[in-house]
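Need residues for this backbone.
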């Protein structure tokens, strides 16, 4: 797998960001060559992208990190939505071909796989929204640089956490916390237990019983 290693000694340099929604099921990414990094995090559907000679199917919760000077284009139409972020690295970055990230990384460096999964997509969305709000409201370039860096740091931490051995209780606690975060995010909507169960890929009755076993009240009551 291809990884990109960045230094945190100085923040990454923010360039542009936004959220894209395909206008129709016939949409296909146009061809271009970028001079900076582009991070794409898909929130709906599947984006079909080709980077140089390699094709990627990026589904919901997946991300793709496209390096500078790469030729990118769509190779299949799709109705999808994704957040995108353009940035550059002030310090030299490294492209690494490896079977995985080392178990111990220096605190001042992160490694991001070219493609992977955001295991807590809602958290990434919150940071991306925060970055977009900062760009629109505060016009503080250094602030934006640090928020941009935090997006990559969160992806790195989620990826590292997914590789760490976890016991059953840790996994259950993580699922419980993720459910709480999801409900908080959609607290102003008429969210249903069935929708939460569908999102996390569990049977509605099982998820409600699981939640009650930890919280002491049913998922619907919560």
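Answer:
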């Amino acid at each position: 797998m291809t990884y990109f290693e960045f230094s945190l000694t100085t923040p990454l340099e923010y360039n542009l960001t936004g959220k894209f929604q395909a206008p129709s099921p016939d949409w296909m990414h146009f061809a271009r060559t970028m001079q900076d990094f582009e991070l794409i995090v898909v929130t709906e559907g599947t984006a079909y992208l080709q980077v140089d000679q390699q094709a990627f199917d990026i589904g919901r919760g997946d991300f793709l990190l496209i390096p500078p000077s790469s030729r990118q284009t769509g190779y299949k139409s799709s109705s999808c939505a994704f957040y995108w972020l353009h940035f550059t690295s002030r310090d030299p970055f490294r492209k690494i071909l490896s079977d995985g990230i080392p178990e111990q990384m220096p605190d001042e460096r992160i490694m991001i796989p070219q493609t992977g999964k955001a295991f807590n997509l809602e958290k990434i969305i919150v940071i991306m929204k925060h970055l977009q709000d900062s760009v629109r409201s505060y016009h503080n370039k250094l602030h934006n640089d640090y928020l941009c860096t935090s997006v990559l740091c969160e992806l790195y931490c989620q990826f590292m956490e997914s590789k760490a051995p976890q016991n059953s209780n840790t996994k259950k606690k993580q699922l419980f916390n993720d459910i709480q975060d999801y409900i908080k995010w959609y607290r102003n909507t008429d969210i249903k237990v069935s929708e939460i169960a569908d999102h996390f890929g569990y049977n509605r009755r099982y998820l409600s019983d699981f939640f009650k076993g930890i919280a002491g009240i049913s998922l619907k009551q919560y």
